[in-house]
Amino acid sequence: MTDASITDASSAAEQRLLELLADRAVFGLEPAEEQELAALLAAHPNRDPDALDRLAAAVAINAATAAPSPPHSLKTQLREDAVRFAQRRSDPVIEPAGRRTGGPAPARSSAHSSALGMMVAGLLCALATLACVVVANRREPAGGVPPRGSDRPTTAAIPTPAAPAEAAAPRMTRPVPTPAMLRDEMLAAVGDALRLDCAAAVAADDAKTSGDVVWSGSRQRGFLRISGLAANEPTESQYQIWIVEGGRGRPVPGGVFDVGREAGEVIVPILPRVFVQGPTTFVVTVEKPGGAEDYSEERSRVLARAR
Amino acid sequence: MPLTATANPIDVRDEAEHVRRLMGLLRPEERQVLEMALGEGLSQAAVSERLGMPLGTVKSHARRGLLRLRELAAQTMGSATASAVVSKGGETT
């Protein structure tokens, strides 16, 4: 075997190791994959086997604390889980954290499970505390549903509420927040939330267009609320959001969306692919399906500009 | 500071806030899959069903998203998350 082929094999093994660690952190592994991972970790003793698990735990906490209002059942379940995990800290085999609600839990080595279990126990205790803090500081919509029916998402890109099978699962599930809920939460809870009114860029066919943009620099996301846009046929064209920054010449794509024929007011998330600093204008254009890479002012329909 | 069983809520909140910012740099589909899997505790099959994506695509988005987060955290050395993803030997894992 040549030096080059040895290097390639080593690189491939490291890449596979990372893939397995990532898979384990998010969805867990099958027993065969667990064995493969153990062998790769033995061959790479300097790798921290729990690093991606810790990162995944931070993502979970982030997602949970970003929820506008965790339901009471979730708060109770978190407290119970934290107590249960704390009680099992000295057990030889610890179940993975309740991240998944379906399918068999993957088997893990006892050494890894012990370390991970202790870490997750601490995180869940902290999460339970944080959930209480978040709830104490945020207004809870009655029944956990959007306050106005017209705020429900109408775009194809927005996930629908939980499927019945998942909704019935007893552990670690919560309703999917709608864009309207997330927008309201951002306005109420995020200090740097910016709100800009929309104006029609093409007066002739968008005279009735109205709406606004809410943007948070710290969260790097925002929401466009718009009504009066003409319905589009997704196979022919889609609306695309662009973010114009003061210090950057090229507008940043913020996602595509559709408007149905029966749609009244539409609320869509603004999700840039790169970090956005100091946005001054948000523009909606009509583009080919999937969106365009480059902005063209000729295709603009609506804009919201900071004054 | 790496997250451990003794991490206090303030440290965890700082960590989560940092991750929140980094999540904004992921592709929307990667962020969406990670939030559903890790934030809502949905299985791979459940995420696949809800988003209408093949199972393999869901797994790819989750994998790429988490590894991208690791890279971003490593690029912001000095933060809590960055130190949490540095391996024992000083490499990023």
Strand and helix map with partners:
The complex is a heterodimer of chains A (307) and B (93).
Chain A: H1 3-26, H2 31-43, H3 51-66, H4 72-87, H5 110-137, H6 164-167, H7 179-189, E1 194-200, E2 210-216, E3 221-227, E4 238-245, E5 252-257, E6 265-270, E7 279-287, E8 300-305
Antiparallel strand pairs in A: 1-2, 1-8, 2-3, 3-6, 4-5, 4-7, 7-8
Chain B: H1 9-23, H2 28-39, H3 44-51, H4 55-75, H5 80-84
Helix pairs in contact in B: 2-4, 3-4
How would you describe this protein?
The complex is a heterodimer of chains A (307) and B (93). Helices cover 36% and strands 18% of the residues of chain A. Chain A has 307 residues and is an alpha+beta fold. In chain A, strands 5-4-7-8-1-2-3-6 form an 8-stranded antiparallel beta sheet, with helices on one face. In chain A, a hairpin with a 6-residue loop joins strand 4 (238-245) and strand 5. The termini of chain A are far apart. Mean pLDDT of chain A is 69; it is low at 90-117 and 128-173. With 93 residues, chain B is mostly helical. Chain B has 5 helices and no strands. In chain B, helix 2 crosses helix 4 (55-75). Mean pLDDT of chain B is 72; it is low at 1-10 and 77-93. At the A-B interface, helix 1, helix 3 and helix 5 of A face helix 1, helix 2, helix 3 and helix 4 of B.
Rg of chain A (CA only)? 23 Å
Q: Which series of helices and strands of chain B comes N to C?
A: HHHHH
Rg result of chain B: 14 Å
Low-pLDDT runs of chain B: 1-10, 77-93
Shape of chain B: elongated
Name the descriptors.
heterodimer, A: 307 residues, alpha+beta, 8-stranded antiparallel beta sheet, 7 helices, B: 93 residues, mainly alpha, disordered N terminus, disordered C terminus
Give a brief outline of the structure.
The complex is a heterodimer of chains A (307) and B (93). Chain A is of the alpha+beta class.
